[in-house]
Here is the input.
Amino acid sequence: MEMLFTKYFEVGSMVLFGVGFMTLLLHNNLIKKIIGMNIMDTAVFLFFIAKGYIDGREAPIVRGFHKGVEAYVNPVPAALMLTGIVIAVSVTAFALALTVKIYEKYGTIELDEIMKMRGD
Amino acid sequence: MKNTILKEVSKIVIPFIQIFSIYIIFHGHLSPGGGFAGGTIFGASLILYRIVYGKGDAQKKISYKRLMHLMCISLIFYGVLKGYGFITGGSYIDLFEIPLGTPGRILSGGYILPLNIAVGIVVAMVMYLFFTLFYEGEV
Amino acid sequence: MEIFSIIMILFLIGSAIAVSAIKNLLGAIIAFTVYSLVMAILWQQLNAPDLAITEAAVGAGITTLLFIFTLKKN
Amino acid sequence: MYIRSFPLVAILILLVSAFVMPMIKKRSIVKGLSLVSMGISSILALITLVYVKENGSFIYRIGHWDAPWGIEFQIGIIEAMMGFLFTSVAALIIWYSIYSIHKEIKDNRVVFYYLLVNILIGALLGIVFSNDLFNSFVFMELSTLASCGIIVVKDKKENIKATLKYLVLSTLGSGLVLMGIAFLYSITGHLNMTFAHREIVKVYADYGQTVLITLGLFTVGLGVKSAMFPLHTWLPDAHSSAPSSSSALLSALVLKGFVLLLVKILYRVFGTEIINQFPILNLILISF
Here is the structure.
């Protein structure tokens, strides 16, 4: 129970993951769905980065001379999450392009109205 | 957009944005930055040019054909160079090892710098492509 | 430092809930921009400066631009 | 010795030849290039299959770093077999689509169709061969985007609706898979499947709840992507409205890539010892 108050980054990222998941799943508006997807992804990135962070160490950049492995935080999650951001941006752009197409063809971006229409 | 103040200010600002993005791309392998972040900023400068000067002027600078060719050539260059590195590393052929690089010297990173430049070009072009496709429907 | 991070996380959760709650779509997009900027600050706090640069350029810049142009088309 | 790098060369040929296509003007050359690159990679996969059958499975490191730091491919008999199957089936489908594609999509999109098909098969080969969790995730997203692209290329009304359904549900699934990878990384500290297995066998008694949640996240996330029984709602629309050649690609190859990834994660990362403690196989195979 006390981990709720000491590991606040992880707890916060879990709450954000829930909020993003619910926004992606339950909202009818497509733009809000896409924003929810972005929130969900960044919450997972925050979880990863918080796992790589070690208190009292500096960023993994060598300034002047190398201070040994013990002086820096774990650089692997940062490198992975950079790839994750690229993926999130490309999926977002693709989904927004589909949203524009949907509006051109159906005249609305509310998903429940679109699903009621027959596609013909 | 016919606004003299915007045009004059952006004439001064755009080169500085581009120089900053090139700084970020060139420092990517030794300090924070890299091809993706720098390329995004370079794409932002192209987007600013497009918004201020309109479609005609921007198409003279970057036509659709030139954009596609730049993107594809950078991607092929990236694939071939990275594949060469992968295959020599995986097959234990020690033709040319990547040097580890010393902080503060830009050229000491082996071929990570050309790879970063290729990534920067691709990302800048893709950001510009996204923007034009969303803004006016054509490049 | 710790207090600052906690306040930023609370701000983050607040803006995420605001995205879900605000009816106006432009308001939701602006709340998402705030979310991205606060996230960039938080990553600087967690010693990942390259991610902070990328998030500030991508999340707060390009993504917001794409969202707003999509909204303009509708 | 050079045969060991053939799986990587097959992926590289597909991905590099995909980006040569937009620079070529004539459509027939693009079609021929796609068919030739797929044929070359299927021959490479066949040679790999013969090699693996004689010499046993091997591990191939990508780049200059060994396993816990770098990415690696692990090619056993099933990976080699699936690689040959994927490339040869894709080559046959492309051969068919050369004669039928102009009836279904507009003329100026043919180039992008073949670009997306090449990227899709390259990404699927990446999923099959890779021994690294995050690398598999990247290839997974790449193949999802490419398969959305080959559905929407027809540009009809119901087509866009089906693609949107597919995209929303599969981003949900990939978010869950990424969360599962995050949990697994925070328990074991490794992303490589072999090393993660070695660590998780030691510690799973202390982290019973977390291992259960991780298993659930992977199963639901990959289940959405591979259209397992209760999670299959996107599939009928997407597969029936796509052009016929991409429908063949989707139902023959894409889903099987994700099923193979789920099998690899369940058996290679967690191992039979851990799976038997949870009723996860009963849930997937519906056997009580």
Remarks:
- The longest helix of chain C spans residues 49-73.
- Residues 2-73 of chain C form one domain.
- Residues 40 and 52 of chain C are 5 Å apart (CA to CA).
